[in-house]
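I have been asked to look over a protein record a colleague put together. The record follows directly below this note.
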Amino acid sequence: MDSDNRLYKLAVTPAGRRLWTYMAAILEVTEMTQGKPFPLKRFMANFQTHLDGGRIESEPDGYRLTRLGHDYFQARYQAGNPQRIERAAVEQMIRSIRSGVGEGEWIRLT
């Protein structure tokens, strides 16, 4: 991720499908889906279930998506997954994270 990029987060972490979409977009924007670490707490405070489940692991530069986590989050795009997300919704959320414009109140990451 280019350090000159300005990123934004939702002022209030969403719930349900919007949360799953937000998480997918965060993982892509931060390049965690590509194996890069990122200080995920800049976006959200609570992702303990993913740490406990072995999907995300802590490391010196932040957090890294594990192979299990990569598979878990990719499975959300598959039909029949109860936490299914739509690619178009994730792409819209990515645009909001990069621009600070979209549904809800967006604040710049510090």
Observations:
- The chain is about 35% helix and 15% strand.
- The helical segments are 16-29, 48-52, 67-75, 87-99.
- Residues 16-29 form the longest helix (14 residues).
